[in-house]
Every structure is written in structure tokens, then in C-alpha cells.
Amino acid sequence: MKQITKYVIKNSLKRIFLYRSCLVRLKMMGVEKVFSYTLANETGVTPDQVRKDFSEFGIKGNKRGGYKINELLDIMENLFHRNKDHNIVLIGMGNLGLALSKYSKFVQRNMNIVATFDIDPFKQKIRSDITVYSMSRLKEIIDRFRVKVAILAVPEISAQEVADDLVRHGIKGIVNFAPVLLKVPPDVIINNVNLCDELESVIYYVHKQLKVEGLKNLEILYKDMKY
User: Fold this and answer.
1) Dist. CA 56–CA 170, nearest whole Å
2) pTM, whole model, 2 decimals?
3) Distance between CA 172 and CA 190 in Å, rounded?
4) Is 129 helix (H, G, I), strand (E, B) or coil?
5) Which CATH architecture has domain 86-193?
6) CA dihedral defined by 9, 11, 15, 16, rounded to 10 degrees?
7) What is the pLDDT of residues 164-200, one digit of tens each?
8) How far apart are CA 85 and CA 78, in angstroms?
9) Hey, what CATH topology would domain 3-79 get?
10) C-alpha–C-alpha distance, residues 150 and 213, integer Å
């Protein structure tokens, strides 16, 4: 039975990415140990939150002696299975798909886009570093490279149909850039990335902050007028 995915990327997991980024930066600066309050200050959370997040993912440390940065990074590498290559297919070679196919950070993190797909015959003929296949070869490529994860960058109208094909051919995780909530079997993980929503979230907080600053300025002006 298909449903809106029950898997939600936890905020605690998103914070692990922030901690990792902070740890990499500290390591480059020659720092060997770090305390929870340092990570808290760098990432905008509380020390208790850092320790709680670490506990959730089985990361242990010495409360007084701090955490060894190399050990933390090794644990995080294991969390994300960085010790092995992950083959990925990308569906949709429009502007977004083309940009994603050229993103060099994927390779640096052992995520290899082994093939891309598009229904446009012209795009299938273009020579590039990654071959653009027709959708008719989807199962063949997924089976050949033992792919379990896909990136979906197709128009909203075709997203569900393509997702159905991916799941039918063995895909267990989809990063979905189409602005639609996909229905999939319970054991399939979907991560919806809506760029418009992300931008509107920033716009919301920008205007909220501007409103607060405006009220503060009015208060200052009012006080000046009183005196």
C-alpha cells in the first residue's frame, strides 16, 4: 500500500551534519579536542542539546575531558557509511538535474551518480561525463550498478509516475526535488527538497526580523520625542 512516507529526516540528524562541519573546521585549525559548549556556540544550540543528539546516535564522550575530534569524525563517517561507495541515479536532466549531475561534492563523499535519465531524445544524444539514458533502460542500469537511491528532478506532473517506476525497480530512497508529496510503500524513504519553500522560509524570517527592528526603532523614536 502506498502512502506519504512515514520517514521524516530528524532535526537531530540535520544537527549532526552541522556538528560535523564544525568539527572539520576545528580539525583544520589544529584543534584535537572539543567540548559540547564549543559545538553549541558554533551551531546555535545548547550544550545539553549537543549531548542529547550525540546520545541518540550512540556517540559517547568524556564530560570533563571533552571529545576527541578525530574519534567524533570517525563515528560520524560510519553513521553515513562513508567507508563504501553509493551508486545513485538521477532522473530529469533539466537545468536543475544538469546542475546536480555536475556537483563535485557528491564524488568527494563517495556518492556516485552512475547514470542520468530523461525522456527527451535530444538530451540522450548529448555527450557528457555522465551518460543520459532513456527511461526504458532504468531497470537495466539500476540492476547493473545495484542502485538503491535516486534523485528525482522531474516536473510535478510526472513525479509520481517516475517514483512508482523507481520503487518497482528496487529503489529504497528518493531525494525528491519535484514540488509534490510522493506516495510510496512504507519501506521507502523520501526526502522532499522544495527550493521555493526553502527560500520562502528565509523570506519569512527576514521580514519577521525587519518588523522587530522596525518596532524597536519606533520605540526609540517615541522615547526621543518624549524628552
Assistant:
1) 30
2) 0.79
3) 9
4) coil
5) 3-Layer(aba) Sandwich (3.40)
6) -40
7) 999 999 999 999 999 898 999 988 999 988 888 888 8
8) 13
9) Arc Repressor Mutant, subunit A (1.10.10)
10) 44
